[in-house]
Fold N-acetyltransferase domain-containing protein.
Amino acid sequence: MQPVTNKKQLAQFIDFPHDLYRNDKNYVPELFIAQRDMLTPGKHPFHEHSEVQLFLAFRDGKIVGRIAAINNRNHNAFNNTQDGFFGFYECINDKVVSRQLFDTAEKWLRERNLKTIIGPVNFSTNETCGMLVQGFDGPPVIMMPYNRPDYNLLVADAGLTEKVTLLAYKITPENLEDRPYRMLTALKERLAKKNFVIRNINVKKFDEEVAKIREVYNAAWSKNLGFVPMTTNEFNHLAKDLKMVMDPDLCHVAEQDGKLVGFSLALPDLNQILIKIKKGRLLPTGIFKLLLNKKKVNGIRILTLGVTEPYRKLGIEACFYGEVIRIGREKGLKYAEASWILDHNEMMNNALININADPYRKYRIYEKAL
């Protein structure tokens, strides 16, 4: 086992999955430049308040596994806990190697007086998280994880047990119950009587919109299991990245008398393109594949849809779904994935079931006492 301490090792850490999944047709490589920046202190704002140590496992000079040990100080301060985390876990199908990875991460977390190990999260539930446990029959959608089925056995062998299950729903035009779309005009008129407006994000005032959306995000998701508020720098960093790939037609906000009370964001499923970009390198040819094929993407991921607590169940959520359905039809989209949803979030799960969405994938976050 070796800690990652230089740029060469960091590149090896990022590139290891490409070799591991070289024969897996569903594997989508992460963009190298994005992963490099995320894992480099000074490049990503997570490192301003928390600590991450990357580890590589070697056998006979060859990399056979990787893991990140994460001390998320903001999470522990907000939730009054002493939780440690792991992320970026990848491993050959070997219990000995997997145990060494977890043993090393656990030792690092214990040295910081942390009492549990939870994951996978990269770095928190605000980013990619969860381990796929059901639905291995296709590539992941944008910003969702993917792994081999045996990973869950390896994690269990290391002594971790289920903490929470996350659901992903698939929505297709053939099976869709489009009541939110049919009710859209009436719902918006009813909301207008109480001075509510549903509108697209104003890209010309992007920074102002982002500041308001961050307040809604941190309030609307505050009671979710494992949630930690995003700092201003973290949210701005994420928004800057999303701005490059988002379609403004698919980003909606709800406001009353100028006060933002909810928002929804759906992203084009760029994994349809990224799956063809070798080793996640945009240069020399990857950038052209991305630019030339962006308009051909025919699926989306509904990434976030939330309303602050006093304004829930007024019809705002249904309006957001109605708008997504309307835009999806106009653009000729073939599918949407709504993800992820906590399995015990009855309101969101029922809303999706009511439009005939299919809970076709499950992900799991694990935990273990240290």
Summary: The chain has two domains: 2-165, 179-364. The longest strand covers residues 358-369. The CA atoms of residues 79 and 331 lie 42 Å apart.
